[in-house]
Write a structure and sequence with these properties.
This protein has about 400 residues and is mostly beta strands. The protein folds into three domains: about 60 residues, no CATH class; about 180 residues, Jelly Rolls, CATH 2.60.120.200; about 70 residues, no CATH class. The chain has one helix and 31 strands. Strands 4, 5, 7, 11, 12, 13, 15, 16, 17, 18, 19 and 20 form a twelve-stranded antiparallel sheet that branches. Strands 6-14-8-9-10 form a five-stranded antiparallel sheet, with no helix packed on it. It has a three-stranded antiparallel sheet with strand order 24-25-26, with no helix packed on it. The longest helix is centred in the N-terminal third of the chain and has 24 residues. About 10% of the residues have low confidence.
């Protein structure tokens, strides 16, 4: 009898344990299992390196930085930003958007905090002359403009909607929560359409109030070219939209200040170590701080810190007029120009074995100009202009 009850207890406990383990193992990619909600939750923005299944804590989310870069948490993701009627975002000059665009698709998660009797613009796509826009009209219905009217889907206060706007070569379509809503005749080639604004019609209309935007994605056909999330810049507290694709930050182009939702996550990104610092490649867990190391006093890094991944990148500088040459103690290459310092240490300036005009060191002595090469390339000094050998 005792054996029966033990077996029954094992079955009973297993019935509660198994679903949790099963759910955790199903959290694949950049997600982790949350026991409180019994769901898989996406890792914070930027922390998508660890794709092993079964992560059960946010600290298992990782970000990987190549040598010469380190983790910087410059922004904090917000749940949403809301316009009061004078704030708007202009992303016309987004760095990673290139033409031609064959089919442009906008996807936004939005809500309304209250209705007004005027149009409340979500976002617009277009040119300076014609703007395709998505709005909540004066009756509180979603609307696609220009040239159509709403009425089928009423925007309920506080409800979050996914609004998709697709412009192809033939038409302009609107989807609400994945269902087709409106379709209008299109009269502008997608290759001439540029991304424009959030909370505003084009760059010349009024901004809309009481609209909350939680996220905004822009696609060229099926390729994601812009992924905006509400964020605060930690250095100065400025509010805007951060693009996870390019790392660009778009701030308020209007007046006043956005209303902001609660903090969501720190946004991790890998940035250059900067002049005078170096960092090896690193993998950092969420919640940990990335690190870089300063060069010893009197030294700096070659190329303003781009790609500096070890102490060997720390260099002395030789100033010749307006030019600066970086001489490294190690990382010797052949050919190279040797410089012996007063402390008897030898430093090196790497030269190019081909394209000799790139590897010249220009010198002036007694009014004459010379070009010095490494001995393994050419022997001796060479004329500044003709690069012919000067016979001693």
């Amino acid at each position: 009898m005792k054996r029966f009850w033990v077996a029954l207890l094992i079955v009973f406990v297993g019935a509660f344990i198994a679903p949790v383990a099963y759910a955790a193992n199903n959290c694949t990619g950049a997600t982790y299992y949350d026991s409180d909600s019994d769901t898989c939750i996406a890792c914070p923005t930027g922390y998508d390196y660890n794709t092993d299944a079964g992560k059960t804590d946010i600290t298992q989310c990782q970000i990987h930085c190549d040598g010469g870069t380190y983790v910087s948490v410059e922004y904090t993701q917000l749940e949403y930003i809301e316009s009061t009627g004078t704030q708007w975002i202009d992303f016309t000059n987004a760095a990673n958007i290139a033409t031609p665009i064959t089919e442009i698709k906008s996807v936004a998660r939005v809500s309304l905090s209250q209705h007004t009797n005027t149009r409340q613009f979500l976002f617009s796509i277009g040119s300076s002359a014609v703007s395709h826009y998505v709005e909540v009209d004066g009756d509180g219905n979603f609307n696609l403009g220009p040239g159509s009217s709403g009425g089928l889907v009423h925007c309920e206060i506080g409800q979050v909607y996914e609004v998709s706007h697709i412009i192809s070569a033939t038409d302009s379509s609107l989807y609400i929560n994945g269902s087709p809503y409106l379709n209008t005749i299109h009269y502008q080639s997608p290759t001439n359409i540029s991304p424009r604004t959030l909370f505003r019609i084009g760059s010349y209309g009024a901004a809309a109030s009481y609209i909350r935007i939680y996220s905004y994605q822009l696609y060229n056909t099926n390729s994601l070219i812009l992924n905006l999330i509400p964020a605060r810049r930690n250095s100065d507290g400025i509010i805007g939209m951060y693009d996870t694709v390019s790392g660009q930050f778009f701030t308020n182009s209007g007046m006043g200040e956005f209303i902001v939702g609660p903090d969501v996550d720190a946004i991790g990104e890998c940035i250059n170590v900067g002049a005078g610092y170096y960092a090896a490649a690193s993998t950092v867990n969420y919640g940990s701080v990335g690190a870089r190391t300063a060069c010893p006093a009197g030294l700096t890094t070659v190329g303003y810190g781009h790609g500096a991944d070890s102490a060997n990148d720390c260099a002395h500088t030789l100033h010749i007029g307006d030019y600066v040459l970086y001489a490294r103690r190690d990382k010797i290459t052949t050919p190279s120009l040797n410089i012996k310092m007063s402390d008897s240490n030898v430093y090196y300036i790497s030269l190019s074995p081909t394209g000799h005009s790139l590897s010249r060191l220009h010198l002036q002595y007694d009014g004459n100009q010379y070009t010095a090469y490494d001995d393994s390339l050419y022997y001796g000094e060479r004329d500044f202009d003709t690069v012919t050998q000067i016979v001693q």
